[in-house]
Amino acid sequence: MQLNLERINVGSLIQELLEEGLQPQAEAKQLEIFLDIKLAPLQVITDPLRIQQLVNNLVSNAIKYTNKGNIKVICQQLNQQEWSIVVADTGVGISEDNKANIFESYFQVYPAEYPLESVGLGLAIVSRIVKLFQGEIDLESTLGEGSVFTIKLPFIK
């Protein structure tokens, strides 16, 4: 995997992806997606395809594992060195025991409940892309209450 860098408006990219690809999936489950790009950097040098993969995989998982409530997607500049994408849901959450393995290929937290919907690669791909960008990913989750994935990416000059 390699990066194909170009200058983009990352907030607009995320908004378009949500509206065109992910909103219908959420609406089918009567879930709302809230997008906050007020503090998103206007121009970022990045790989738009990889950013789409990150957002698509995280939001698709949030939709899959959320039966009621909402999903929040926030893109913002943190400081002069980095920016972030946050995906928060009100879904089933992830136990402390499973957090250590969640980014491994083919690992599934709930294989019995979602046997045909997932093979356990989405978060492994997210982790690899974040490493490719030399960024960080953080997970906060409470079983039965939901999860928050925070990706921090450095500005590429």
In short:
The protein is α+β, with helices and mostly antiparallel strands and 157 residues long.
Helix content range of the residues, please?
A: 25-40%
Distance between the termini: 20 Å
If classified by CATH, what would the architecture be?
Answer: 2-Layer Sandwich
Please tell me the total number of domains: 1
> Beta-strand percentage?
25-35%
> Shape, please?
globular
Q: From the alpha-carbon coordinates, what is the Rg to the nearest angstrom?
A: 15 Å
- Give the overall pLDDT as a whole number: 89
CATH class: Alpha Beta
CATH topology: Heat Shock Protein 90
Q: Largest sheet, order of strands side by side? A: 2-4-5-7-6
Which segments are poorly predicted (pLDDT under 50) over 5 or more consecutive residues? none
Count of extended strands: 7
Q: What order do the helices and strands follow?
A: EHEEHEEHHEE
Main beta sheet: strand number and arrangement? 5 strands, mixed
CATH homologous superfamily assignment: Histidine kinase-like ATPase, C-terminal domain
* Number of alpha- plus pi-helical segments: 4
Report on this model:
The chain is an alpha+beta fold. The chain has one domain: Heat Shock Protein 90, CATH 3.30.565.10. It has 4 helices and 7 strands. A 5-stranded mixed sheet has the order 2-4-5-7-6, covered by helices on one side. A two-stranded antiparallel ribbon has the order 1-3. The longest helix is centred in the N-terminal third of the chain and has 19 residues, at 10-28.
